[in-house]
Amino acid sequence: MTRLRLALAQFDFPVGAVAANAARAADLIARARSGGAALVMFPELTLSGYPPEDLLLRPSFLAACSSELGALAAATHGIAALVGHPHSAGEVFNAASLLRDGRVECTAHKQELPNYGVFDDKRYFRAGHGSVTAVIEGVTVGLLICEDVWVPEPAARAAAAGAELLLVINASPWDDAKQAEREAVLVARARETGCAIIYLNMVGGQDEVVYDGATLLVNGDGSIAARAPAFVDALLWAGFDPAMRTLHAEEWPVAADTSLEATLYAALVRGTRDYIDKNGFDGVLLGLSGGIDSALTLALAVDALGAERVTAVMMPTRYTSQLSLDGARAQAEQLGVDYHVISIEATCGAFIEALTPAFAGKGADTTEENLQSRTRGVMLMALSNKHGRLLLATGNKSEMAVGYATLYGDMCGAYAPLKDVYKTVVYRLSRWRNAYAAQVGEVERIPAAVIERPPSAELRENQTDQDSLPPYDELDAILGRFIEAEQSQAEIVAQGFSADTVRRVVRLVLQNEFKRRQSAPGPRVTTRAFGRERRYPITSGWH
């Protein structure tokens, strides 16, 4: 028979919102107590949000977290709560405190500080020493924080101290390989220690990082007892049988689609929604070109915010095809967004006329093409300013990798939902979203003609992307090996790719770092995102 009932708060606790986070935690403590839980768990750095970055350098911020922790502790009569927070004790620790009977009973400090990828814990925190255990209704639990479970020693120390159940609170960001990695790690820890494991994860978007929740219950023999859905806010109930060291979920929500495409799409929607809402914007604006990137961005924006908060603008020139005009209008009307068509032909002509004397003796080239893109950028920024809607950039990772984008043109925007999504994945997501729409009885989200057409920037007659780039299947295969896998050119060529093509792609990646440094943030969804995770020098002699 189950002897211990727990509540797991898989919720978003936004960075810096200390008082609001404490208020949400207090409400959840009350709900958990009324539901008969002996303990309610909260994610890593519940009070400060994760990652608070240089807010942790401000004494007033640390003091606010400490004050709210004390107030929460006072509310823990008849229930225990495990709460994450920064703990300032001469030095600053990433901490998890067990609150019970109106006080802070004990505090565990994060022992393993990640300092790779998006993590920068060593800039702010000192490492803890030794695992902390506590007894909840006769069950000895070990208190661990995120990275602590990714190496054997902290779990082993907790087990040696008598732990039967490991409580692991996390702010673990999602990427397309993360869930399989997590499960492998947790299975290994359970089998090594014989302890059951509750892995509670935060959910929500924070700047370029997206947390998926996807809380896990792992039995003492290493079998997975339950998986919570990704990107769902929920108070989850679980029971623990100490005699068998098994866990069970109590009526957890179930994801309708657990495919990679469904989860990735949910990550992009959540990242976009939270970025817009947490920064206080009424809605978004984007340039709708009739191409697949802007079409997918529009679908994401509508799913994230609702059609009433989205404006789409088509800005044609003489090079804009009827297919583009028809596709953009059809999608805007199907989705019910505010839609405008503003020709930039005359505006571009005025720029060219003004510049002609300074261009004397030089033929037309990409300058004139880029001028079209930059004219669109000026128009979109003016509309963004006038209507107070945040401009979304629509470029994808393949384009950003090789610099197939125009600074102050199509790179204009404050947020880029597809920044970490390769072009081939853009196609997969678009087809998946249409298939899901058909399954649930929605209108087609992205016109099929837009998906099937050859990709083109439409900046000159009969232009296609493949005039300038290898086919996207080939390009993305090379980029994945060079960026995510960090393979050398020789290693990539050895896998059957043309040496000339590999050299060209790698050269483009390296020489366009200066563009990426000026690009908008976007949700990180791969294992090697541009921005805070992949930081190559702009100026470098390494080729």
From TrEMBL:
Q: Which residues are listed for deamido-NAD(+) binding in this entry?
A: 370, 399, 515
Q: What SUPFAM superfamilies does the record tag this protein with?
A: Adenine nucleotide alpha hydrolases-like (SSF52402), Carbon-nitrogen hydrolase (SSF56317)
Q: What is its EC number?
A: 6.3.5.1
Reaction catalysed?
A: deamido-NAD(+) + L-glutamine + ATP + H2O = L-glutamate + AMP + diphosphate + NAD(+) + H(+)
**InterPro entries hit by this protein:** C-N_Hydrolase, C-N_Hydrolase_sf, Gln-dep_NAD_synthase, NAD/GMP_synthase, NAD_synthase, Nitrilase/CN_hydratase_CS, Rossmann-like_a/b/a_fold
All copies of the CN hydrolase domain together span: 4-242
Q: Which residues bind L-glutamine?
A: 116, 172, 178
Which pathway is recorded for this entry?
Cofactor biosynthesis; NAD(+) biosynthesis; NAD(+) from deamido-NAD(+) (L-Gln route): step 1/1
Q: What does this protein do, in the record's words? A: Catalyzes the ATP-dependent amidation of deamido-NAD to form NAD. Uses L-glutamine as a nitrogen source.
Database matches in NCBIfam families: nadE (TIGR00552), PRK13981.1 (NF010588)
Family according to the record: Belongs to the NAD synthetase family. In the C-terminal section; belongs to the NAD synthetase family.
**HAMAP family given for it?**
NadE_glutamine_dep (MF_02090)
This chain's protein is named Glutamine-dependent NAD(+) synthetase
Native organism is Rhodanobacter ginsengisoli
